[in-house]
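Task: sequence design from structure.
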């Protein structure tokens, strides 16, 4: 059984929802990432999405785009990201780690080489933003053979047949993009999210994580009442961007935000 399945089942049994922070590997520098991952876990994270830096992150807004740029200045490629996950695993064998990024870095490494290296690093899931299920057969087969969950996105306009197709291919959880737009954009319409999640649940038994537009403890709490997981990215990356010259302040503010979301979600 995968770490993701184990984690979501344990959370469901305890009546809690997954807090899923996102940070870009290597931002603001490579030495920051692994200690921050451990700090996120200590502050209440259940699953962590680790962003793979890419030069053309088309689904991301300016905040995460700039995070990729800062990481790329430190030559953070796929191999470097997997090395950081390997380092994280030396002290944490329980927290699921999901790589989130784009297809190009995987294709450069090669599907099989990537799957093998990700397995050795003990990656639990891979979310490739620009890999639709229609083109994912080879990659999905290689990942699933190594007990790595392929995770796919659902959009506000995904029809039931699309939801069922993604349910058949994906595993771990489904990532519902709650806004039409890029990461960090707009404001959530909770009634729209509620209606769409009800439709998604009619077509899948997988846990549903909701991301895009979750900025604070209040929105995290509201979404957690509807979904199985709350994905938060830009709100954390902004803390890094606002304090690039003070890493300890960054860490403290991210920990505080994580704890406030965890407390709100559990209340």
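Answer:
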């Amino acid at each position: 059984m995968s770490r993701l399945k184990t984690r979501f089942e344990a959370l469901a049994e305890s009546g809690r929802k997954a807090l899923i922070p996102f940070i870009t590997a290597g931002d603001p520098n490579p030495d920051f990432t692994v200690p921050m991952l451990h700090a996120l876990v200590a502050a209440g994270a259940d699953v962590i999405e680790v962003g793979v830096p890419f030069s053309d992150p088309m689904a991301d807004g300016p905040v995460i785009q700039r995070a990729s740029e800062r990481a790329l200045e430190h030559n953070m490629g796929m191999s470097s990201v997997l090395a950081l996950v390997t380092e994280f695993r030396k002290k944490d064998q329980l927290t699921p780690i999901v790589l989130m990024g784009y297809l190009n870095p995987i294709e450069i490494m090669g599907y099989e080489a990537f799957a093998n290296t990700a397995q050795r690093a003990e990656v639990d899931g891979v979310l490739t933003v620009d890999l639709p299920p229609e083109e994912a057969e080879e990659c999905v087969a290689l990942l699933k053979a190594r007990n790595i969950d392929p995770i796919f996105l659902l959009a506000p306009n995904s029809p039931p047949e699309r939801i069922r197709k993604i349910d058949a291919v994906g595993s771990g959880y489904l990532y519902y993009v709650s806004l039409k737009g890029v990461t960090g954009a707009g404001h959530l319409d909770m009634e729209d999210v509620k209606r769409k999640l009800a439709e998604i649940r009619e077509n899948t038994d997988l846990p549903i994580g909701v991301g895009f537009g979750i900025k604070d403890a209040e929105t995290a709490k509201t979404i957690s009442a509807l979904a199985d997981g709350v994905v938060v990215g830009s709100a954390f990356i902004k803390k890094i961007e606002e304090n690039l010259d003070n890493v300890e302040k960054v860490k403290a503010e991210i920990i505080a935000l994580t704890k406030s979301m965890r407390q709100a979600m559990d209340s």
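Confidence is low (pLDDT under 50) at residues 181-185.
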